[in-house]
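Annotated sample (chain length 331).
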Amino acid sequence: MTETRLDVLAIGNAIVDIIADCDDAFLAREGLTKGMMRLIDAEEATRLYDHMGPAREVSGGSAGNTAAGVAALGGRAGFVGQVAPDQLGEFYRHDLNATGVEFVTPAADLGEPTARSMVLVTPDAHRTMNTFLGAAQLLPSSALDEAQIEGAAILYLEGYLWDPETPRYAMLKAIDVARRAGRKVAFTLSDTFCIDRHRDGFNQLIDDGKIDILFANEAEVQALAGTAHFETALASTAARVPLLVVTRSEKGAIAVAGDERAEVAAEPVAKVVDTTGAGDLFAAGFLAGQAQGRDLEASLRIGAIAAAEVISHYGARPEADLKALVAERLG
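Output written by the structure step:
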């Protein structure tokens, strides 16, 4: 097997997050359900943006957040995603590259602008996401750099990108390239609505042995397994993949690999400010730990440390020195 150039190469939606505070009354006026994620069109994106209060922009998207987290932890990270040749696309590329992530996928003028997500954060730290996918949902197989995939120890894919047909084919091609190169493939289920829409496709990936590491939260693993009993869902899903990682919010996280099971508590947080990116940064920490050759428990702890840091402030980018936090708490 050839030497790797990247620890993690993440493929996902290239989305600019536009984050603003709001109260419950604002959500009610806009007809929004707190804590939900919905897909919107360009017209609704413009309308909602006009109604929002002061906001800040950051390069986001689930897999992009994970790649940035891996880089913040000292790992070698890359990202593949589709932006348009517009102002937001230029911002996204510059912002992600500035975090230390290799993002070389060319912009494509496909008639759709760069994706953006209006993230509304209420005082109780719940975020309500309104996402216009734009160019992100048009990532073609031709945009993949096979050498980049072959040079990454772990290929990480987000379930959100499975929804549109065009990037689904790109993801399947990337999986095949990675597996031929002897690399590991990690997949995150992303959201229960993704499972509801693509349960058969996700199960096919698992049954075909194409997933080495599966990430889910408690609700997602229950939805995939078709049972509300957590331990039953955990056991039945773990039996189907080499490594299953499940986050449980304040209850911590669990990893199961064959007969080995590791479990950690959530890291303490003085105040939860914004849960945006918690799962993404947890995945970053776990993958970084695996890339460093750490065991399951240590990898879970790094994930918990990264997640705790990101929910203590606005946005899905770490503000503290994650490498220092890990060294302080784990050594």
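Annotation: The chain has twelve helices and 14 strands.
Annotation: The mean pLDDT is 95.
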